[in-house]
Amino acid sequence: MRRLSYTVYIFLQCTWGIIQTLMGLCYFIISIKYPHEFYHGAVLTRRPGIGGVSLGLFIFANDDNSAGMSGKIAVHEFGHTIQSLILGPLYCLLIVPESMLWCALPPLRRFRQDRGISYYSFYTESWANKLGRAVLGEETP
User: Fold this and answer.
1) Which of 39, 80, 85, 140 is deepest in the core (most CB within 10 A)?
2) What is the mean pLDDT of the segment spanning 73-79?
3) Is 88 exposed, middle or buried (0-12, 13-18, 19+ CB in 10 A)?
4) Are 57 and 124 in contact, with CB atoms under 8 Å apart?
5) Cβ count near 134 (within 10 Å)
6) Sorting pLDDT into bands at 50, 70 and 90, what band is 71?
7) Burial (0-12, 13-18, 19+ Cβ within 10 Å), 108
């Protein structure tokens, strides 16, 4: 059964989620020198210096496990791949820009820091956590 579900997952990411999967493929090619593994049907690349990025079939997560977060970030990023399956091409409109701005925009970073707001409280991130936990049954950040 697992093999069938991986096949369906990959098929859907390469059809309904093709836009983000192609974006992920481009980033994968750029990241080819880093270690890769299959992760519940997705392709997980361990890259230093990033928290995590998920684009269709591809997950990119920090390889630094010194804080014990590496596995949890992968589960969270897998949740984003489920968002990709649900939203299809709308993922690039409803998740990617909002998530990137929430993560990287300096005023929003200061806002979170000054008010003690968790990065994972934003709707794109909390939803990814819920999906990752629900599908994989593992902890998220």
Assistant:
1) 80
2) 93
3) middle
4) no
5) 10
6) confident
7) middle
